TrEMBL record:
<feature type="domain" description="BTB">
    <location>
        <begin position="23"/>
        <end position="96"/>
    </location>
</feature>
<dbReference type="Pfam" id="PF07534">
    <property type="entry name" value="TLD"/>
</dbReference>
<feature type="domain" description="TLDc">
    <location>
        <begin position="297"/>
        <end position="464"/>
    </location>
</feature>
<protein>
    <recommendedName>
        <fullName>Btb/poz domain-containing protein 19-like</fullName>
    </recommendedName>
</protein>
<dbReference type="InterPro" id="IPR051481">
    <property type="entry name" value="BTB-POZ/Galectin-3-binding"/>
</dbReference>
<dbReference type="InterPro" id="IPR006571">
    <property type="entry name" value="TLDc_dom"/>
</dbReference>
<dbReference type="InterPro" id="IPR000210">
    <property type="entry name" value="BTB/POZ_dom"/>
</dbReference>
<dbReference type="Pfam" id="PF00651">
    <property type="entry name" value="BTB"/>
</dbReference>
<dbReference type="InterPro" id="IPR011333">
    <property type="entry name" value="SKP1/BTB/POZ_sf"/>
</dbReference>
Length: 466
């Protein structure tokens, strides 16, 4: 019975908000020309919000004709109405809002000290609006950082940036990132980039701050001093000893004038002198959280959590690079190891579960499949209910992915010494690829894989349970 009365009470207060009976507060929300007059009740606002208790006090609030006048130009009218509806009846609907509005709403409820909504909206953004967080990474990162109550969103977003750093580092506004935030990122031991990429992006950022070109032969002594001063705080955060010799020579040593001379000396010694011991103060390598670093020319790290979710038949939102339960060890790359099926079987037979990825010639399209069993050279069909094939129409965009689980389990995987990775309808015979339609129907539901196609390159990975 109690829950019934609470619903009735909530509905009555919502009617009070909508009918505006007895209102004594006039709120002007938004900026010209989009200002909206909203009516409310001071007693309800003060009971539900410490902010309004202060804002509507006699010492602060403006009064006219017995009504409080309250101006809030920095909160859009439609967002203020959402907040007031929550204050009155405890109801809030976020599904109809886009990511940018939800973030603005979060900022507004933080300003109004509505603490229960702060946690709720953060949870909603994390669960349903992760794609939005990729759209303006620098602006969003700085916004979240500026609000100390956004702890959950800050931790989540920082982890996402470390898992998929190109989202931020490849964005046009990366060079506008605040130095303090860049320092936080470079201190992370889970930043999933090679050290030379980190160094190159740091230089790109520094050159932009000083409005300088990247050719050290054209720098004056004053330029060297300025860029050296800009870099100073970041140098201890770069793991120079993890940079390959060729990259060190061509991409680090050429900037020796802006680096500490003792560091340059130690790095030269490290690369030239055999078996030299590392200095005791060298910072440890970043953690990749994986036994095998991804070695692929076709896919990127953000593909791996998606593969793991398909293997476990779970929601992809539950997976990221940290909680991915599989490693992917490269067994075979056709452009390296030889395109003939012989080389495929030599490298991949009897290795247990594998996932293969092929790039279709002339397109951005990737196709592939997961075989939870072994490959071998004996001619027969293998039975499993856990295999699947997949298709990315744009290999750079994982949101274009489609997956298709086996429906004819007796024809899930085909093994033969003259066949490459062959699964259901997908045939690879002597490197001639096709999506064949059998008389008994599709063995995997159609997901847009062409009928006949050429493959530029394909890779096979052993799927290793962590």
């Amino acid at each position: 019975m109690t829950s019934k009365f609470l619903v009735e009470l909530s509905n009555d207060y919502e009617k009070l908000f909508e009918t505006e009976i007895g209102y004594d507060v006039i709120i002007y929300a938004g900026e010209e020309p989009n200002v909206k007059e909203i009516h409310a009740h001071s007693n309800i606002l003060c009971i539900r919000s410490q902010y309004f208790r202060t804002a509507l006090s006699n010492e602060w609030a403006e009064k006219k004709d017995g009504k409080f006048i309250f101006k809030k130009p920095n909160i859009a009218p439609h967002l203020f109405i959402i907040i007031l509806r929550f204050i009155y009846c405890g109801n809030i609907k976020l599904m109809d809002l886009q990511g940018p509005d939800i973030l603005r709403l979060l900022i507004a409820v933080d300003e109004l000290n509505i603490y229960s909504l702060i946690s709720y909206i953060q949870e909603f953004l994390i669960k349903y609006q992760t794609e939005f967080l990729h759209q303006n990474p620098t602006e969003i990162l700085e916004t979240v950082y500026e609000h100390e109550m956004f702890t959950d969103l800050w931790n989540f977003y920082l982890e996402k940036i470390c898992e998929e750093p190109k989202v931020l580092f490849d964005s046009d506004d990366f060079i506008n990132l605040k130095a303090s935030l860049l320092e936080i990122l470079l201190k992370r031991d889970d930043l999933y980039m090679s050290e030379i990429e980190i160094w190159e992006n740091l230089l790109k950022w520094c050159f932009a701050q000083q409005n300088m070109n990247n050719d050290p032969t054209e720098w004056s002594k004053e330029d060297i001093t300025k860029i050296g001063r800009e870099l100073h705080r970041f140098i201890p955060l770069i793991q120079f000893y993890n940079i390959e010799p060729a990259d060190f020579f061509y991409k680090v040593h050429c900037y020796k004038d802006i680096l500490p001379q003792d560091l340059i000396h130690d790095l030269l010694e490290f690369h030239i002198v055999p078996n030299v011991e590392l200095k005791s103060d060298v910072i440890p390598s970043r953690k990749l959280n994986s036994k095998y670093q991804l070695d692929s020319t076709l896919i990127e790290p953000n593909h791996l959590p998606l593969f793991a979710s398909w293997i476990n038949k779970n929601n992809p939102l539950r997976y990221n690079r940290k909680n991915n339960s599989y490693d992917f060890k490269l067994l075979y790359r056709s452009s390296w190891d030889g395109i003939d099926p012989y080389f495929f079987h030599r490298n991949c037979d009897y290795k247990g579960a594998t996932i293969w990825i092929a790039k279709i010639k002339g397109l951005t399209q990737l196709i592939g499949g997961y075989n939870p069993l072994d490959w071998d050279g004996v001619s027969y069909w293998k039975t499993t209910a856990d295999s699947f094939i997949f298709n990315f129409t744009d290999r750079k965009n994982i949101s274009t992915a489609k997956v298709s689980y086996v429906t004819s389990i007796n024809s899930a995987v085909y093994c033969d010494s003259i066949y490459g990775p062959t699964m259901g309808n997908i045939i690879c015979k002597d490197n001639n690829w096709s999506n064949k339609i059998y008389s008994d129907g599709e063995r995997y539901p159609n997901i847009g894989i062409p009928t006949n196609f050429e493959v530029e390159d394909y890779e096979v990975f052993q799927v290793v349970k962590r």
